[in-house]
Amino acid sequence: MILCSHVGKLVVGAALLLHFGHAKAQTPTSTPQLIVLQPAAVFDGEALHPGWAVLVEGERIRAVGPANQLPTPAGARTVALPGLTLLPGLIEGHSHMLLHPYNETTWNDQVLLESQALRVARATAHAARTLQAGFTTARDLGTEGADYADVGLKQAIEQGLIPGPRLLIATRAIVATGCYGPKLSVDVEVPQGAQEVSGPDEIVRAVREQIGKGADIVKVYADYRLSATSPSVPTFSQDELNLLVVTARSLGKPVVAHASTPEGMRRATLAGVETIEHGDDGTAEVFKLMRQRGVALCPTVAAGDAISQYRGWRKGQTPEPERIAHKRQSMQAARKAGVALAIGGDVGVFAHGDNVRELELLVREHGFTPLEVLRGATSGNAKLFHLPDRGRVAPTLLADLVAVAGDPTQDVQALRQVQWVMKGGTIYRQAQQQ
Length: 434
Ligand SMILES: [Zn+2]
Description:
This protein has helices at 2-26, 107-113, 116-132, 149-158, 199-212, 238-250, 262-271, 284-293, 301-310, 322-337, 357-366, 370-384, and strands at residues 34-43, 48-50, 52-57, 60-66, 77-88, 90-95, 135-140, 166-169, 174-176, 195-197, 218-221, 223-225, 232-234, 255-259, 275-278, 296-298, 401-405, 418-423, 426-429. It is an alpha/beta fold and 434 residues long. Strands 1, 2, 3, 4, 5, 17, 18 and 19 form an 8-stranded mixed β-sheet that branches. The longest helix has 25 residues, at 2-26. It is globular, with a radius of gyration of 23 Å.
């Protein structure tokens, strides 16, 4: 035994040395790059600070503060960002990199007719557009029939093979048997947009499979419509949801729930999910329960807005559909109850790169201030998604930074004017002034 262990140690030691030597040969300079960023102002995730500058060292922020007080070490490169506001990289709360807008191809046809290779190829372009739009992190809530393609997509981004945001992925997502889609004739079995389960054994197995293959989050559909024309109904029993959450939690992963009915939302909340996605029919009562249990709402107002337009609503010209008015009421109830808000638009239903649409609608049509949604999409989402290393501009955090023209704390429209993007200290979009 002693000999074995000794030999083992030697082998490990040699491997480490080799690895170290190899890594060293590939990176001729071991000194991390120092960059001083000089914008007109810094929004640090909470407040705007005119005249501040930021020092980046390698992939992290080293210092932030008034430009004239910031240390400028020898050898630091200066990047002037005149007239721009520097802010933490935005965090998308609800995306589907493997989907593209439903007015291009219906969801059913994407799931049934598009090959996984095609969907992944599209997803690489979606990831690039998301990053270019200033979103340096995205919570991607389900591949919608593309199996575990998000695992490889995330790896490709992490390995620097393709540009894209840092991803938190949900892989296949979980639905109750018979309660999702696509549905064709009852005689035809077709692949589903998520993994179907019923009963304790299948639930435990699916949760472990998905987490085992790389899911950062488990997503469950707590309710859904049984046919294209019927309303949503709760799909899982309380016991099933409880077990699903307990199983994920014991593996250290949170559960998020798609739910729009009060009863689906109530069961998911009682089970201990962290966020409810959509919540369109949420009542004062269920929002109060969410608030009590610390469950956040990710309202995805942009999804309903887009789908209503795909169905013929000509915004500003034809009367507002019932769905839109109803959503505005439920959002008011959520605000009144004091439910925490995750900011995410269900992007994929509409075009990737157009992520800001959710923030714009929250400001223009739901009474939020630009500062509220900006905090939400930076420090707020970081907190809700357990990401203490980002969402703010502060020393030691990741250098995920974006520069926009104008003041986004006053005008949400400024977030459309992304001029410069850095992720982990690497610049992905250059300001025109440079
Ligand atoms: Zn979604």
